[in-house]
Design a protein that fits this description.
Layout (H helix, E strand, L loop, with lengths): L27 H9 L30 E6 L6 H14 L3 E6 L2 H11 L5 E3 L8 H4 L7 H5 L21 E2 L2 E2 L2 E13 H7 L7 H13 L14 H14 L1 H8 L9 H15 L12 H9 L7 E4 L2 H4 L10 E4 L15 E10 L7 H11 L2 H11 L17 H13 L3 E2 L3 H4 L3 H12 L5 H16 L11
Parallel strand pairs: 1-2, 1-3, 9-10
Antiparallel strand pairs: 3-9, 4-5, 6-7, 6-8, 6-9
Helix pairs in contact: 1-3, 2-13, 7-10, 8-9, 8-10, 17-18
Length: 473
């Protein structure tokens, strides 16, 4: 979603972004029904081991207990969770056993249904489990953020403001989004400077740039099949900038005809023009997403790519020398947009959950507590070139990263004009959205067809009374 936010996935993250018709659809009603009558292999008769609760062991982790952690293996990898295992072992014995996964929904749904979920799950990537599907089976993480970190500071006081806003569902803190994610368009400053190109702040400017780069033998955009919905995130961001919070609320509340709002249509129409004008590198629907991203970062066949801030780390081994990766906010449709050009989609991403039926839920909570320490958060920023939600872990030189430095600059310029949305992840819409977006970017669907397809997907969830809805205000 990585989210974060890949892909096969990950993120729109992260949110967010995988699969064509070959992947199964996670329907909230299906898993809820199965869970109600599923196996009780994790029943109360086999209570998890418990240790003594103390200031250094606030969750009562049992000595020598192992944590079963399933981590999305996307743009951030999994080693940052493994990093926490050393501190866990030193304090409690045992270990954090990390299992990488790129198929979260397919692999984890049977475990939730069977009552034997992992102790810690990074529910990220294109094929994550919709939060509405499993929210009732998750531990309330309020006790986590109310606990002290390894440095002795209450965790919620050590975080950037507003970073827990997207963690609530139906009045309960069901997840912990670990990474401070900035969304936008990414480009090579070196390439732009050499050609005298200016990064676009509106879609009119983007289309004008498309004509210039086409004349230079390049494409404006490229995409990969598992990450086609990165352009969905870009479209939503642009539409919110164009139409303001009314658009954000309409989309988030799954309103009827929300995809036909003027601001949304203005953005989709511009994207449609980019497709019909040949500004998208062809073949994306048949290209694996990291291969497509390398067409941008390494071969430089395309000059702009929409993504979250995980992109630099994800492509660090496939980026041209002296690329100087830099980010800009999503462009609005017009220069008269409701929000300023500096307005930015920024939020916490990479959602971690602790299932309530986990065999070692205490160990899952403790692993997150360790990850929220300053040492672990600084390690993440340094090795992943992205910030976590923990404050004061990125130095002024941004570890030499132009992409990370541009993230900090974008956040500073946006100030109060930052916004977020997470309805795609909450309701597990990404899987179905991938199908229509791959068709649209391939030129097989026009704007009207894309609009109709997205509205049908949205209406299906809105009209499903078994799905608890989150009111967006």
């Amino acid at each position: 979603m990585s989210r974060e936010t890949e892909i096969v996935p990950t993120a729109v993250a992260r949110r967010r972004f995988l699969r064509l018709a070959t992947f199964g659809v996670a329907l909230p009603v299906g898993l809820s029904a199965c869970a109600a009558g599923g196996s009780s292999s994790g029943d109360a008769s086999s209570a998890p081991p418990a240790g003594e609760v103390s200031e250094d062991n606030p969750f009562g982790v049992a000595k020598d207990s192992t944590v079963d952690a399933v981590i999305f293996d996307g743009g951030y990898g999994t080693d940052y969770v493994t990093f926490a295992s050393a501190a866990y072992t030193a304090a409690h014995g045992g270990e954090v056993k990390v299992t990488p996964s790129t198929q979260i929904s397919q692999q984890m749904q049977p475990r939730f249904v069977g009552g034997n979920p992992p102790d810690l799950l990074d529910n990220s990537g294109a094929n994550l489990i919709g939060l509405a599907t499993i929210a009732a089976q998750l531990t309330d993480l309020t006790s986590l953020v109310d606990a002290k970190n390894l440095e002795g500071t209450v965790i919620k006081d050590s975080l950037y403001p507003g970073m827990l806003a997207d963690d609530m569902y139906d009045g309960k803190m069901v997840q912990l989004n670990y990474v401070l994610t900035v969304y936008g368009l990414w480009y090579s400053k070196t390439l732009f400077d050499a050609n005298g190109w200016t990064p676009p702040t509106t879609w009119a400017e983007a289309l004008a740039l498309g004509e210039k780069v086409k004349a230079a033998g390049k494409y404006l955009f490229c995409w990969g099949k598992e990450a086609a919905t990165y352009y969905l995130t870009l479209a939503i961001d642009s539409a919110i900038k164009e139409g303001g919070d009314d658009v954000r609320k309409a989309l988030g509340n799954l309103e009827a005809d929300c995809w036909s709002l003027p601001a949304v249509q203005a953005v989709l129409t511009a994207m449609g023009t980019a497709v019909s004008s040949g500004y998208f590198r062809p073949g994306g629907a048949g290209t694996q997403f990291t291969a497509a991203q390398a067409q941008w970062s390494q071969a430089q066949e395309a000059v702009l790519y929409p993504s979250g801030s995980w992109i630099e780390n994800e492509m660090k081994d496939q980026t041209a020398a002296d690329f100087q990766m830099t980010g800009i906010p999503a462009p609005a449709a017009t220069a008269s947009a409701s929000k300023p050009a500096e307005a930015l989609h920024a939020s916490a991403g990479e959602p971690f959950v602790v299932p309530s039926k986990a065999k070692n839920a205490a160990g899952g909570l403790e692993t997150l507590r360790i990850m929220l320490s300053k040492e672990a958060a600084t390690n993440f920023a340094k090795t992943k070139l992205s910030s976590t939600i923990v404050k004061d872990t990125v130095p002024s030189d941004a570890f030499g990263s132009t992409a990370l430095a541009s993230q900090v600059a974008m956040l500073d310029k946006a100030g109060e004009d930052s916004f977020t949305h997470n309805f795609v992840d909450i309701y597990g819409l990404n899987t179905d959205m991938l199908v229509v977006w791959n068709s649209f970017l391939s030129g097989e669907l026009d704007v009207a067809g894309l609009t109709s397809g997205m509205q049908d997907i949205t209406d299906k969830v809105r009209e499903d009374d078994s799905v608890v809805k989150v009111s967006v205000s």
